[in-house]
Amino acid sequence: MDLIRRPCVRFEIVYDARVVIDEAVFRYDPTGADRPGKVLALHLNYPSRIAQRGRAPAAPSFFLKPSTSVSASGTPIHRPTGTELLAFEGEIALVVGERVRDVPIERAWDAVRAVTAANDFGVYDLRHVDKGSNLRSKGGDGFTPLGPAALDARAVDPAALRVRTWVDGELVQEDTTAELVFPFAQLVADVSQLITLEPGDVVLTGTPAGSSVVVPGQTVEVEVDAPTVPGTPSTGRLVTPVAEGTVAPGRYGAGPKVDDEQREQAWGSREAAGLPAAFELTDELKDKINTVGTATLSAQLRKQGLDAVSIDGVRPLTPGTRLVGRARTMRFVPFREDLSARHGGGYNAQKRGFDALNPGDVLVVEARGELGTGTIGDILALRAVSRGAAGFVSDGGVRDSRAVAGTGLPVFAATVHPAVLGRRHVPWDLDLTIACGGAAVQPGDVIVGDDDGVVVIPPGLVEDVVEGALQQEDEERFIAEQVSAGAAVEGLYALTGEWRAAYEAQRQERR
User: Fold this and answer.
1) Which regions of 53-137 does DSSP assign to beta strands (E)?
2) What's 275's DSSP letter?
3) What is the Cα–Cα distance from 208 to 476, expressed in whole angstroms?
């Protein structure tokens, strides 16, 4: 793989099947002379895909694909018999040009010989048995098409590449490398800390949003180019026809298994997968929730058998504050010097959590009821506002409380305190089930707060709970009117007998 390279000039040496096409492009033969010894694939990198997945990785996360998964342009991929969720992922592949181990990030790009187009195919039906390693789901023969040409790494800017994917001629993925979470040099440096990279090895760098399912008879094409380079050098289109396989996995081990979650992830959305719409906290539903108090909602949740859904000990930073939104969660662990040194600084879980907020989100923090420090300050409150967040809840403290209140972000917390987070906490992880104020909170739960406190409503119960609360408050309006007029509460609160009949009659008149 030794090539004499000069920037923006033709290669001086050509070997085997490699043929120079122009100053920056040469043919790439992944099943012959250029066959990689190993393929390392990244889980998440493009912001568009991260937003789609709802996970914000703190560091690059890789998995291995066998070299036997590699195929060339024009080679069909066979969907295993008995499976339904074969998904494509158009990607940029880095081709290593020299043997490196623990290469510094400053010279990591020098270890890359070329970039080419890749398609990281996967069968979601097989993820259940080895999710994470992805061996069964993404390691099958032909599941890593590469090529057909490669761009000389010296002739392109790694932050100015473009990847596009077509299915049956329709553009379905398009993104650039301008805003990757993990730049290419970091990927090479990171993986080389433990794994020796050798000439020909391939690093897959993640896929943008738009990945979805294909079926036999369709054709997927991927192209990588450099739009900012004169002439826009390109890898050409990597063509992969999809065919029906003849081998049914599971005869000697785990077989296909799918559910609606896998279908949604494979297709990219519930709508694309043909599934019923997931729960949505619509503006109309928010308006209804905002007409009832948390006390009424708590009573209705108890009728549903849920009596442990109040976040105890928290109060609004600004009295009169109203809060309605969907939960995102964050967990802090107790301060420990070594853990804080590794996880407390830099782009830690707390900062990533605020950066990942979406409109309508309520960030709920597990601070273990620790009152000796703050868990949010004015800068992060401003970030939450800029992201369109609906609020913040913590069973810990708030620092910069006046400035935080001034941002307009609805904040509920246990106390105010001047100390920084690192006095008692280490930011640990995001978007998992947590405990806050004695209540279990899961991502996606509906959070409602007012001067009485904060309640947690499971999404599947929201509509029933809200309708019950509206009915309860209407009854209590009637009861209050009668008590104000001098009526005794016996038989009136709660409504029974003649009072019930009187209420129903009034209700009919209002219709």
Assistant:
1) 62-65, 70-72, 77-79, 86-87, 90-96, 112-119, 122-123
2) P
3) 52
Show the tokens assigned to 426: 């280490």
The bridge status of strand 391-394 relative to strand 361-366 is parallel
Q: Which amino acid is at 80?
A: P
Does this model's pTM top 0.90? no
Parallel, antiparallel or unpaired: strands 411-413 and 391-394: parallel
pLDDT value of residue 20: 56
On the 0-12 / 13-18 / 19+ scale of CB atoms within 10 A, 387 is: middle
Taking a C-beta distance cutoff of 8 angstroms, is the pair 155, 90 a contact? Answer: no
The string of pLDDT tens digits covering residues 26-73 is 999 999 999 999 999 999 999 999 888 877 788 999 999 999 999 999
414 phi-psi bin (left φ>0, alpha ψ -120 to 50, beta other)? alpha
Cis peptide bond upstream of 148, omega within 30: yes
Cβ proximity of 16 and 33 under 8 Å: yes
3-state secondary structure of 26: strand
Q: What is the pLDDT of residues 266-292, one digit of tens each?
A: 999 888 998 887 788 999 999 999 999
Q: Report the greatest alpha carbon distance in the chain.
A: 101
Joined tokens for residue 73: 């342009």
Q: Parallel, antiparallel, or unpaired for β 86-87 and 170-176? A: unpaired
Rg (CA), the chain: 28
Main-chain dihedrals φ then ψ at residue 255, nearest 5 degrees: -105, -175
* Spatial distance between the Cα atoms of 377 and 440, rounded to a whole number of angstroms: 24
Question: DSSP assignment, residue 76?
Answer: P
SS3 132: coil
Place of tokens 């990927």: 187
Give the residue among 334, 315, 319 at the shortest CA–CA distance from 372. Answer: 334
Query: Which pair of structure tokens corresponds to residue 366?
Result: 């597990």
